[in-house]
Amino acid sequence: MALLEVNDLRTHFRTDDGIVKAVDGVSFEVEKGKTLGIVGESGCGKSVTCLTIMGLNNRRNTITSGNALFKGDDLITMKPGRLREIRGNDIAMIFQDPMTSLNPVHTIGRQLVEAIQLHRDVTRKQARARALELLKAVGIPRAERRIGDYPHQFSGGMRQRVMIAMALINDPDLLIADEPTTALDVTTQAQILELMNRLQREFGSAIIIITHDLGVVAETADDVVVMYAARVVEKAPVDSLFSRPHMPYTWGLLGSLPRLDTDTERLTQIPGQPPSLLNPPRGCRFNPRCPYVMSVCREKEPELLPISNDPMHLQACHLDEQTKDREAAKLLSGTMAEAS
Amino acid sequence: MYRYLIRRLLWAGVLFLAVTIVSYIIFFLVPAEPARLIAGPQAPPDQVERVRKQMGLDDPVIVQYGRFLGGMMPVSFNGGPHLKHPSLGRSYATRQPVTEIIKDAAPVTASLVFGGALLWMLIAVPVGILSALRPRSLLDRSAMVFVLIGISAHPVWIGLILIYFVGYKAGLTPLGGYCDMINPSTDCGGPMDWAHSLILPWITFAILFAALYVRMIRANVLEAMNEDYVRTARAKGAPEWLVMRSHVLRNAMLPVVTMLGMDIAIALGGAIFTETVFGLPGLGRSALQALEGFDLPAVMGIVVFATICVIVFNLFIDLLYAMIDPRIRLS
Questions:
Q1: Which residue, A241, A308, B270, B279, has most beta carbons within 10 Å?
Q2: Which of A106, A116, A119, A159 to mutate to test the interface with B (most CBs of B within 10 A)?
Q3: Does the structure show a pLDDT above 60 at A337?
């Protein structure tokens, strides 16, 4: 049994303009100790998917359906009290912006101790010792002194390390990292990813990493889910996705990676805008932007189906396989060197 | 820290000089003759002239201002330096030392202002928080109607309405006047009578600020609830009461502390209305009476005292703020 099994998850928000279908039938699994990458443009529903799993959406205007089985228990229908016991203990989360994710009026020590004492019956002293141990593990220099400092006394990279320490402090089985490196500069990004990889080996946690950066996925993930407009459009083991991408949207993402081997001044981009989730396009949601669009794409939404000779690789596209293989090969002749 | 304090105190001195100079100049620009007022309307011109000489009112403004400043110093250099009681002069109208007028009036105003501030916080904090927790609920909407009324209605009108209905019609409270808490000089006195006589003034005084604070606290709490660190706290598995207490309210109340410091100072000015309506012998009413009688020493004394209060209060709030917000360091 997978550690986390998400089936047909839907999260709809009631707004003044109508119902925004932010997540619309998403399914995936996370295996114990493995890393799942969720990739997609801003606003495609990656973050909302994870906030829904954590039960962190504003309940007032949210309609949720489907299920998310964590060790067999459904997180979506679970009682709030039970979910609270799981949050921060079995499932922990790291957020995008470390500058605002820590409470400015409490010392980081106090915030770490709080995270432990919410779930463990330990003394303040024991909790503090554990906090110190984690701060050292995530590479905060002079941790003994810095544990009494306030968040504003740390740099962005250091704050993200503190966030990671806080997430791992109770040995969670699953760590959800929502764009953990987006707000950081490139060298710090690499350090944080390296740190997460190392800690995963040490702590054995499974990780869901949400990102729009395929480079991050290539570096960290075992499996990849590509989301577009609130839906999963491709799902595959990381090698298979990068060697045989099967969906024009994924090609677009791969094609827009910066490349060093060509002289083009501008980055390649996917033309057009992501569709409104209030009124998604009929048929395939990518059809208005797809260079390979056919008339069937405007009528019928493609199903998420395995490709021939690889049952682990699912994709949702009407194009025939020969065209896909040909186009993917053309695209990859240059890009793979950069992406992996 | 010490450098900060010294700099603040120096600035306080500059502010103090500026306020007193402006008050002095305004007073001398007004075409009134204090000597005539002191000598009385029937006094012959030579007597008025004598009073003017005696009081030093014929000296240039700058000399009079210097004499006023000198009087406030705790040291005198007349016939060798020696310590003396700082003096603000005597009232033209009553010949009473101004310090005594202030000593009598200040406790009344302090009772009104601090009691009022306590009342407006007791109203605003729970209502503001509950409105933020249940936006668009019946409570929230009623609170917003109260805010609108509180901000629009003038304290004089509120005061008169309260006196008429609560004091006169229902007979629940005195119609006006003040009862001393500690040393009763009139027939009423003691803490109970003191509070009883101040209930309506407190309510009148507090309504405007309670309204402003409900709105401010509601907005702050709503904003703080959407902060990323609040989401972090929930993601840690913190129960909702802990999220509110330790993460939302702690941050939402920081700006309220600053505002409270400034508003209590502003409220000193607003006290004039309330004191007048309820006949409370406080600083506001004393200042108003002194102004009507062109009683310069009394006016100056009250201005000086109020200025000192505002300066000290602001300094206190700044120090308090540095204590509760770790991002602020006094340097």
A1: A241
A2: A106
A3: no
